[in-house]
Write the structure tokens for this entry.
Amino acid sequence: MGMWWWAIATFVLVLLVGLYLSMTAGRLDRLHRRIDTSLHALDTQLLRRSALALDMAASGIFDPATAVVLADSAHSARAASEEDVVARGLAESDLTRVLVEAIPDVQEADELREAAADPSMLEDLRGTCVRVQLSRRFHNDAVRACRQVRRQRLVRWLRLAGHTPWPETVEMDDTPPPGLTAR
């Protein structure tokens, strides 16, 4: 009778370990999909932000020097390769810096609204800047969660992540212009 108990206990233990490994592999798969989705959302918001910056530079509401610098920075951000994460982060951070300098306070934002043919352009930019921040935060949180699971010994030993590349966070300055966030 003692032998049956060992066989049943071993079977239950193997079943529980298999269930744990299956759940962990499923969680990793969901985290990798979440990372892909959040990166796509971030890319969409970054492209929207650079397009709005280009539109604003071409609208004539800024002085010519600011318009040229803004257009150049927005174009560089759009042209940055998605594969080179560091270069893209620098280009996007540069666009952020230029936007912060172009719209430094509420008074400047109000003057730009009055001069603009479409005053909603600044509100669109404000909303997009906030969505860029949220998208980046969401992506980086998903990357941190995935890295935490992938660091577990059983996950590494049994290669539950397969051949999926190590997830990378997106590092950039995404501070919205102070003139737009004070409202």
